[in-house]
């Protein structure tokens, strides 16, 4: 016996919504496991001024996938990670690159921009000799 049209439409829309939500979850997981994402969070968690300004505990939120700042290709990655703490909230801006497709990612710059516009440099790669310069 064929399914009535109303039930078919309802079933199809539920399946499409569930599939869309599942894909959103998978994309977020893929970003959060990437080394450029993890390296940036390590820098944030080891930066006393940023942690003090945000307040503990620091919460990392899902990326806004529609934000045009978030960009990843084969050699460059640029992310805007929403973060918040007990005192303040903002975005962790991350710039990372790699020399070839299967090489390791290297952070270029990481800075925290708070909702009030204050910027806290967290990490910057020195352009002169490639040394890492951790901002304090």
The number of helical segments is 3
For the largest beta-sheet, the strand count, sense and barrel status come to:
7 strands, antiparallel
**What is the 3D form?**
elongated
Number of strands: 7
Rg over C-alpha atoms, rounded to the nearest angstrom? 19 Å
Strand content: 25-35%
Distance between the termini: 70 Å
* Mean pLDDT across residues: 87
Poorly predicted regions are none
Order of SSEs, N→C?
HHHEEEEEEE
- Give the proportion of residues in helices: 25-40%
Can you characterise this structure?
The protein is an alpha+beta fold and 136 residues long. The protein has helices at 5-33, 35-45, 48-54; strands at 59-60, 71-72, 76-84, 89-97, 106-114, 119-125, 132-134. Strands 1, 2, 3, 4, 5, 6 and 7 form a seven-stranded antiparallel sheet that branches. The longest helix is centred in the N-terminal third of the chain and has 29 residues, at 5-33. The model has no long low-confidence stretch (mean pLDDT 87).
Question: TL;DR?
Answer:
This protein is an alpha+beta fold and 136 residues long. It is built from three helices and seven strands. The longest helix has 29 residues.
């Amino acid at each position: 016996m064929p399914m009535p049209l109303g039930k078919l439409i309802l079933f199809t829309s539920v399946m499409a919504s569930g599939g869309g939500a599942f894909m959103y979850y998978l994309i977020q997981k893929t970003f959060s496991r990437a080394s450029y994402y993890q390296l940036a969070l390590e820098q944030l968690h080891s930066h006393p001024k940023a942690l003090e300004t945000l307040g503990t505990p620091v919460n990392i939120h899902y990326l806004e996938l529609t934000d045009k700042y978030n960009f990843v290709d084969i050699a460059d990655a640029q992310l805007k990670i929403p973060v918040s703490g007990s005192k303040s909230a903002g975005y962790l801006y991350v710039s990372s690159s790699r020399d070839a497709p299967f090489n390791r990612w290297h952070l270029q710059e990481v800075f925290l921009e708070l909702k009030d516009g204050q910027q806290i440099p967290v990490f910057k790669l020195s352009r002169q000799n490639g040394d890492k310069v951790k901002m304090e």
